[in-house]
Amino acid sequence: MDQLTAFEALLFPSDGRNPHMVALMTSPSTMQDPHAPYSGVPVRVPHPEVYMDYIAEGLGHRAWKYHLVEALDYMNKKFTHPYVVFYPVISRDGMPFPINKCIREIQGRFFREECAWRGNIIVAKYRESPFSSMVNGSIADFPILRNYFMTHGAPGAVSSPANQAMVNMVLSTSQ
After folding, report:
1. How far apart are alpha carbons 124 and 160 in whole angstroms?
2. Are the C-beta atoms of residues 116 and 155 closer than 8 Å to each other?
3. Of 4, 106, 137, 172, which one is least surrounded by beta carbons within 10 A?
4. 44, 84, 136, 173 from 71: Cα distances, Å
5. What distances in angstroms separate CA 79 from CA 69, 76, 129, 142, 159, one per listed residue?
């Protein structure tokens, strides 16, 4: 019998509700962890799709992707407990996911539709590897994640230079 283990993660709902904590379930897997510092560590597959509205059913981890946040821009040291951001990529009906109103509000005047985060976004915390050493997050992680989302569009939405242009624009207006 598979043993499910839950870790506290932060959910940024697409419908504009406030971010809040959810129990991100994980299950054991036999796949290799591409981020593990050494092999042989048990891998746990997270199930963020439980919290993703309109996501394609029956695809499991193929219906979502993840992005690692190991530091904020201009930090010279990585977080001791980085973040993994889960976002949906395949919808039930093939239509785009709705723009995440919560993150859109965080971005304020720096919001750009072409690099918008879409759907419900789940953010978990980890130590050495996102799939073998998850740890519980808390609402205290919100300010760091707010700073990240304020200056970063969704991965793959636009090229890295466009994301950097957004970062530069935010920094220049805040001085």
Report:
1. 23
2. no
3. 172
4. 23, 11, 18, 22
5. 9, 10, 12, 14, 24
Residue 81 CB partners (closer than 8 Å, separation 6+): 125, 126, 127, 135
Q: Collapsing DSSP states into helix, strand and coil, what is residue 50?
A: helix
Instruction: Please give the share of the chain, as a percent, with pLDDT higher than 70.
Output: 81
**CB-count burial class (<10 Å; 0-12, 13-18, 19+) for 76:** exposed
**Tens of pLDDT, residues 46-62:** 899 999 998 988 888 88
Q: In a 3-state reduction of DSSP, which class is residue 134?
A: strand
pLDDT in tens, 67-121: 999 999 888 999 999 999 999 999 888 899 999 999 999 999 989 999 999 999 9
3-class DSSP assignment, residue 150: helix
